[in-house]
Amino acid sequence: MAERGEQVPDSTAQAVGKVGEALEYVERARGHLYSFHQLIGHADLLLGEAVDALRDDGHADIADILATEMVGRNVINGRWTFQVVEEFDDTYWHPFRAHTERVRNELTDGERHLHEARMKEERRTHGHPDHSKEP
């Protein structure tokens, strides 16, 4: 019985693998974007606490300026970080994932990580219990 993706040339498997690797980098970038979102949100909450403390200590003028100018401020024109994340997801992340899946389906019979699977088969020590082909 032939395995899925067996007829796919190595060069195509490598190219499709690069598409997948590019998506992996986008996934990592998305994680950093979520970190940015959480860090800015936490910073804004801390700043709000600082404003309250300054006001309580009689520094209302400074507290008012910070509250007016910085607390709740957009990080990009018209956007809070959650909106940046949502726009990234809708504009870039979702389409990239869809294109990656389409490329994989059309060129490798839907086989994920075909290049890596071939590399594993080439590099493993056949017959060694810690180098088995399947789990």
Automatic annotation (TrEMBL):
Residues 107-135 are annotated as: Disordered. This is Uncharacterized protein. It comes from Gordonia westfalica.
